[in-house]
Design brief:
Blueprint (H helix, E strand, L loop, with lengths): L1 E10 L6 E11 L4 E5 L6 H8 L7 E6 L2 E2 L5 H11 E5 L10 H11 L4 H14 L15 H14 L4 E5 L7 H18 L2 E5 L3 H4 L4 E6 L2 E5 L6
Parallel strand pairs: 3-8, 3-9, 6-7, 7-8
Antiparallel strand pairs: 1-2, 1-4, 4-5, 9-10
Length: 228
Protein backbone atom coordinates (compact mmCIF):
# COMPACT_ATOMS: atom_id res chain seq x y z
CA UNK A 1 0.00 0.00 0.00
CA UNK A 2 2.89 2.36 0.85
CA UNK A 3 6.31 1.65 -0.56
CA UNK A 4 9.58 3.57 -0.11
CA UNK A 5 12.82 2.78 -1.91
CA UNK A 6 16.33 4.14 -1.25
CA UNK A 7 15.11 7.18 0.71
CA UNK A 8 17.88 9.52 1.87
CA UNK A 9 17.68 12.89 3.61
CA UNK A 10 20.48 15.21 4.73
CA UNK A 11 20.21 18.46 6.66
CA UNK A 12 22.88 21.11 6.16
CA UNK A 13 25.96 21.04 3.96
CA UNK A 14 29.70 20.50 4.26
CA UNK A 15 31.03 19.90 7.75
CA UNK A 16 27.61 20.76 9.20
CA UNK A 17 25.77 18.10 7.19
CA UNK A 18 23.73 15.60 9.17
CA UNK A 19 22.43 12.50 7.40
CA UNK A 20 18.97 11.92 8.87
CA UNK A 21 17.93 9.05 6.57
CA UNK A 22 20.26 6.63 4.79
CA UNK A 23 18.90 4.56 1.87
CA UNK A 24 15.68 3.59 3.64
CA UNK A 25 13.54 0.85 2.10
CA UNK A 26 10.12 0.11 3.55
CA UNK A 27 6.75 -1.41 2.64
CA UNK A 28 3.50 -1.11 4.59
CA UNK A 29 0.46 -3.26 3.85
CA UNK A 30 -3.16 -2.15 3.86
CA UNK A 31 -4.59 -2.16 7.38
CA UNK A 32 -1.23 -2.94 8.97
CA UNK A 33 -0.26 -1.43 12.35
CA UNK A 34 3.45 -0.60 12.44
CA UNK A 35 5.57 1.06 15.13
CA UNK A 36 8.84 2.87 14.39
CA UNK A 37 11.14 3.03 17.42
CA UNK A 38 14.71 4.00 18.21
CA UNK A 39 16.75 6.54 20.21
CA UNK A 40 16.21 10.29 19.94
CA UNK A 41 17.75 11.68 16.76
CA UNK A 42 17.75 8.37 14.89
CA UNK A 43 15.45 9.66 12.13
CA UNK A 44 12.02 8.39 13.23
CA UNK A 45 10.12 11.66 12.81
CA UNK A 46 12.05 12.59 9.67
CA UNK A 47 11.01 9.28 8.14
CA UNK A 48 7.37 9.93 8.97
CA UNK A 49 7.54 13.44 7.53
CA UNK A 50 9.18 12.26 4.32
CA UNK A 51 6.77 9.36 3.83
CA UNK A 52 3.86 11.76 4.28
CA UNK A 53 5.29 14.34 1.90
CA UNK A 54 5.69 16.93 4.67
CA UNK A 55 9.40 17.03 3.85
CA UNK A 56 11.15 16.20 0.60
CA UNK A 57 13.66 13.38 0.36
CA UNK A 58 17.00 14.12 -1.31
CA UNK A 59 16.73 10.88 -3.27
CA UNK A 60 14.58 7.78 -3.60
CA UNK A 61 10.95 7.05 -4.42
CA UNK A 62 7.74 6.84 -2.41
CA UNK A 63 4.49 5.30 -3.61
CA UNK A 64 1.11 5.43 -1.91
CA UNK A 65 -0.86 2.95 -3.95
CA UNK A 66 -0.71 4.35 -7.49
CA UNK A 67 0.34 7.84 -6.37
CA UNK A 68 4.06 8.49 -6.90
CA UNK A 69 4.62 11.01 -4.12
CA UNK A 70 8.21 11.68 -5.14
CA UNK A 71 7.02 13.08 -8.47
CA UNK A 72 4.36 15.46 -7.16
CA UNK A 73 4.50 19.21 -6.66
CA UNK A 74 3.53 20.68 -3.27
CA UNK A 75 -0.03 21.51 -4.32
CA UNK A 76 -0.51 17.95 -5.58
CA UNK A 77 1.03 16.52 -2.40
CA UNK A 78 -1.35 18.62 -0.30
CA UNK A 79 -4.27 17.14 -2.21
CA UNK A 80 -3.04 13.58 -1.61
CA UNK A 81 -2.59 14.33 2.11
CA UNK A 82 -6.11 15.73 2.29
CA UNK A 83 -7.68 12.76 0.47
CA UNK A 84 -5.61 9.83 1.64
CA UNK A 85 -3.74 10.64 4.87
CA UNK A 86 -4.52 11.45 8.47
CA UNK A 87 -2.16 12.91 11.07
CA UNK A 88 -1.97 12.80 14.87
CA UNK A 89 0.84 14.65 16.64
CA UNK A 90 1.96 14.96 20.24
CA UNK A 91 0.87 18.61 20.41
CA UNK A 92 -2.64 18.03 18.92
CA UNK A 93 -2.49 20.97 16.42
CA UNK A 94 -6.11 21.92 17.00
CA UNK A 95 -7.28 25.40 15.98
CA UNK A 96 -7.82 27.19 19.32
CA UNK A 97 -10.65 29.45 18.12
CA UNK A 98 -12.69 26.52 16.76
CA UNK A 99 -14.82 24.11 18.78
CA UNK A 100 -14.16 20.37 18.82
CA UNK A 101 -16.89 19.92 16.22
CA UNK A 102 -15.52 22.69 14.00
CA UNK A 103 -11.96 21.33 14.19
CA UNK A 104 -13.19 18.01 12.81
CA UNK A 105 -15.31 19.67 10.14
CA UNK A 106 -12.50 21.89 8.80
CA UNK A 107 -10.60 19.31 6.69
CA UNK A 108 -13.88 17.69 5.60
CA UNK A 109 -15.10 20.97 4.16
CA UNK A 110 -11.72 21.50 2.50
CA UNK A 111 -12.09 18.04 0.92
CA UNK A 112 -15.41 19.06 -0.64
CA UNK A 113 -18.02 17.65 1.74
CA UNK A 114 -21.15 19.74 2.19
CA UNK A 115 -21.77 21.51 5.49
CA UNK A 116 -24.50 18.96 6.28
CA UNK A 117 -22.23 16.01 5.52
CA UNK A 118 -19.37 17.49 7.55
CA UNK A 119 -21.67 18.11 10.51
CA UNK A 120 -23.02 14.56 10.42
CA UNK A 121 -19.52 13.09 10.08
CA UNK A 122 -18.13 15.19 12.94
CA UNK A 123 -20.98 14.16 15.23
CA UNK A 124 -20.42 10.51 14.30
CA UNK A 125 -16.71 10.78 15.10
CA UNK A 126 -17.23 12.61 18.39
CA UNK A 127 -19.61 9.87 19.49
CA UNK A 128 -17.06 7.23 18.52
CA UNK A 129 -14.32 8.86 20.63
CA UNK A 130 -16.71 9.47 23.54
CA UNK A 131 -16.93 13.24 23.31
CA UNK A 132 -20.46 13.91 22.06
CA UNK A 133 -21.08 16.15 25.06
CA UNK A 134 -17.97 18.24 24.25
CA UNK A 135 -18.74 19.12 20.66
CA UNK A 136 -19.10 22.86 21.37
CA UNK A 137 -16.07 23.00 23.70
CA UNK A 138 -12.87 24.77 22.66
CA UNK A 139 -9.41 23.18 23.05
CA UNK A 140 -8.67 25.36 26.09
CA UNK A 141 -11.72 23.88 27.80
CA UNK A 142 -10.60 20.27 27.26
CA UNK A 143 -8.00 18.09 28.94
CA UNK A 144 -4.91 16.84 27.09
CA UNK A 145 -6.49 13.43 26.56
CA UNK A 146 -9.72 14.96 25.30
CA UNK A 147 -7.84 17.19 22.87
CA UNK A 148 -5.95 14.15 21.56
CA UNK A 149 -9.24 12.31 21.06
CA UNK A 150 -10.54 15.27 19.04
CA UNK A 151 -7.31 15.21 17.02
CA UNK A 152 -7.78 11.50 16.29
CA UNK A 153 -11.41 12.06 15.32
CA UNK A 154 -10.31 14.82 12.94
CA UNK A 155 -7.54 12.65 11.49
CA UNK A 156 -9.80 9.72 10.61
CA UNK A 157 -13.02 11.57 9.77
CA UNK A 158 -12.04 11.71 6.11
CA UNK A 159 -11.48 7.91 6.03
CA UNK A 160 -7.80 8.10 5.05
CA UNK A 161 -5.85 5.16 3.70
CA UNK A 162 -3.04 5.73 6.19
CA UNK A 163 -2.82 7.37 9.60
CA UNK A 164 0.54 8.84 10.66
CA UNK A 165 0.88 9.19 14.44
CA UNK A 166 3.99 10.91 15.83
CA UNK A 167 4.39 10.36 19.60
CA UNK A 168 0.61 10.71 20.14
CA UNK A 169 0.89 9.74 23.82
CA UNK A 170 4.11 11.57 24.62
CA UNK A 171 2.44 14.41 26.57
CA UNK A 172 -0.12 12.22 28.37
CA UNK A 173 -0.15 10.32 31.65
CA UNK A 174 0.03 6.52 31.46
CA UNK A 175 -3.69 5.92 31.96
CA UNK A 176 -4.71 8.42 29.27
CA UNK A 177 -1.99 7.07 26.97
CA UNK A 178 -3.53 3.61 27.21
CA UNK A 179 -6.93 5.04 26.27
CA UNK A 180 -5.47 6.84 23.26
CA UNK A 181 -3.67 3.71 22.05
CA UNK A 182 -6.88 1.73 22.42
CA UNK A 183 -8.64 4.36 20.34
CA UNK A 184 -6.03 4.18 17.57
CA UNK A 185 -6.40 0.40 17.49
CA UNK A 186 -10.18 0.79 17.31
CA UNK A 187 -9.88 3.14 14.35
CA UNK A 188 -7.62 0.64 12.61
CA UNK A 189 -10.16 -2.16 13.09
CA UNK A 190 -13.19 0.00 12.32
CA UNK A 191 -11.95 1.56 9.09
CA UNK A 192 -9.12 -0.73 7.95
CA UNK A 193 -6.63 2.10 7.64
CA UNK A 194 -2.89 1.54 7.89
CA UNK A 195 -1.34 2.96 11.06
CA UNK A 196 2.28 4.12 11.22
CA UNK A 197 3.18 4.99 14.81
CA UNK A 198 6.41 6.75 15.80
CA UNK A 199 7.08 6.24 19.49
CA UNK A 200 9.85 6.02 22.08
CA UNK A 201 7.59 3.96 24.35
CA UNK A 202 8.34 0.26 23.97
CA UNK A 203 5.04 -0.67 25.65
CA UNK A 204 3.04 1.18 23.01
CA UNK A 205 5.21 -0.22 20.22
CA UNK A 206 4.54 -3.75 21.47
CA UNK A 207 0.83 -3.27 20.80
CA UNK A 208 1.46 -2.95 17.07
CA UNK A 209 1.54 -5.89 14.67
CA UNK A 210 5.05 -5.04 13.52
CA UNK A 211 7.98 -3.12 14.96
CA UNK A 212 10.70 -1.33 13.02
CA UNK A 213 13.77 -0.09 14.86
CA UNK A 214 15.95 2.73 13.56
CA UNK A 215 19.47 3.76 14.45
CA UNK A 216 21.59 6.51 12.90
CA UNK A 217 19.22 7.06 9.99
CA UNK A 218 18.87 3.41 9.04
CA UNK A 219 16.37 0.63 9.66
CA UNK A 220 18.35 -1.89 11.69
CA UNK A 221 15.49 -4.24 12.62
CA UNK A 222 12.15 -5.00 10.99
CA UNK A 223 9.67 -7.32 12.65
CA UNK A 224 8.00 -8.29 9.39
CA UNK A 225 7.56 -7.61 5.72
CA UNK A 226 4.16 -6.66 4.34
CA UNK A 227 2.81 -6.91 0.83
CA UNK A 228 1.58 -3.81 -0.97
Amino acid sequence: MLKAQQISKTYGTGNEAARALREIGLELGKGEMVAVTGPSGCGKTTLLHVLAGLETADSGSIWLGDDALHGLKEKELAEVRLRRMGFVFQSYHLVPVLSAEENIQLPLLAAGLSRKEATERSQEMLELVGLSDKRKAYPSQLSGGQNQRVAIARAVAGRPDILFADEPTGALDSGTAEQIMGLLELMNRQYGMTLLLVTHDERQAARMQRQIRMFNGRIVEDGGTAGC
